[in-house]
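ok trying again, last paste got cut off:
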Amino acid sequence: MRWQRGNAKWAVGTLALALALPVIAQETPESLLPPGFGDTAEPSAPSAAPRSSPPALPGGVTAAPSLEPMPPAEAANVAEAAMTPEEIAAEKAKYDLPDTARRSLDRIGPLTPDSLGFEANAFGGQSGKFLATLMRETHAPIVSRWASILLRRVLLSAIDTPRDIDGADFAAERAWLLLRMGEADNARLMIQGVDPDRYSPRLYAIAMQTYLATADPAGLCPLSEGALRFSKEPGWGMTRAICPALSGDQGSASGALNQAQRHGTVRGVDYRLAEKVVGAGFNARRSVKIEWGGVDRLTAWRFGLATALNVEIPDALYGTVGPHVRAWEARAPALSAVRRLPGTQVAARLGVFSSEALVSFYGQLRTDGDVPADMADRVDALRTAYAGQTVGDRIQAMRTLWQDEAKPDYVGLIATARAAAALPVAEAGARDAANLVAAMLSAGYDRNAARWARALGQLDGDGASDFWALLAVGAPVPAVDLGSSRVAAYVDEAGPAKGRMLLAALAGLSRLSPGDASSLAQDKGLVLAANSRWARAIGAAAQRGEQGTVALLAAVGMQTASWDRLPPAHLYHVVAALHRVGLDPEARMIAAEAIMRL
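nice, full thing came through this time. structure:
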């Protein structure tokens, strides 16, 4: 059976070194992979056994040959046998792409420098196996939203495949890291950049996880035949039932499903979910109820099929996996806006959702109705924040979204970024001014934020020092006093954790003289020397000008669940390396994020 798919929906060195790189306060979520993920089997040789004779009946009578229709694949072979070689070639030419239309494995990725992507040589001459190990060993999501956004752009860029790795395997590792970052749609974009007949066993395995993460079991069908030659993964075996059902061949689907049940290919809720997918196909007559009792963890199979079927997953099961799965939920087209709300909050924090996407979601949430009362108040406040009659009305509405003004909700800051950027520089309290600047920088409105520097002399009290610190690291050019005495005063006022982060950021951005940076670091207990393999690796990559390698190593150095567990020295090396390779805007936004989220 031929499967056709429409255009995908667009979303937008050594092994020893890789294994020695830091994992700070590592919290590894329980694996989402069903048993057998990644296992491969060598393709078996075609059987040379002749077709068996019809079975003998009692009394020596021989059974008549079956009158059942010939299987489609066998019928096609018979039809080809009756055609001349020229006719076969002409027939295949109607469907097969010419060699000139096949995509090369030498360079894979949808983004180019003209579309915010990186240059093809962004990884320089790095070993592909080394890069793949880094990607595979990185425990995503990472702590910084802006570092994650940067890494996503690198992974999606049309980058030259290193010489020592297969292009399909390199695409697989990039997609697998994107999935763990919560970027399900972009992972699908990556795997669809490889022609199906060039898939490797590893890419087949990642494709299974990707189409489940995007709640798109139909996406597995064009790959099913090829995957079954390499993989014993139970999910691929179940496509023998799912794919015929989705094409209306309910008889084949039911037969394959019954066979899977007899062989115990999948059991329990995994089987019931597959059965429900088959029952949702054309001409289906199955009615299946999903019961989650006794299910102790969430897997990609369970998430993907349940979400595609709009079957609600208990919140307790989301607690068995990492936050990236909630980000998958945020993009699931089968779910209502209310059902996607928890995932959307997570997706915004991780960088999967932009400020614009978050505001659009809130608009859809209000339109759909059935919004929880507290969320309805926030949506109404967001509308006022953007369209209030006076500046005072807008700032008051933003306070509702920020919640705790002393430590504002990060999602609230992201949601109000554009509204804050649209305000004129006006009279405001120091805390409000600091939160307005934080909101702008959370979405990259750095020039708008820099305009507020002229208000610094009018501010005093709570929030004034944070206002100064955010502009000190976030403005495109220094816009406030950066003398050593002013920096030292902030470190003493803010406390060791936040103060050292500011000092690390300013030193990394070269906004302090080498002498001031060295003396302040020594006085405040901050070590700037590259005293780890990771620090030396990211420094060397920056010296070589490898933007992609620097972005990947930056993510490696930020593997922690919260900002208060990230060493300030790591922030220094990340910011310094990004600044050195020309990624200064990203370096500044990561530095500002550290100040606003501590």
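cool. Residues 418 and 521 are 36 Å apart (CA to CA). The two ends are 56 Å apart (CA to CA).
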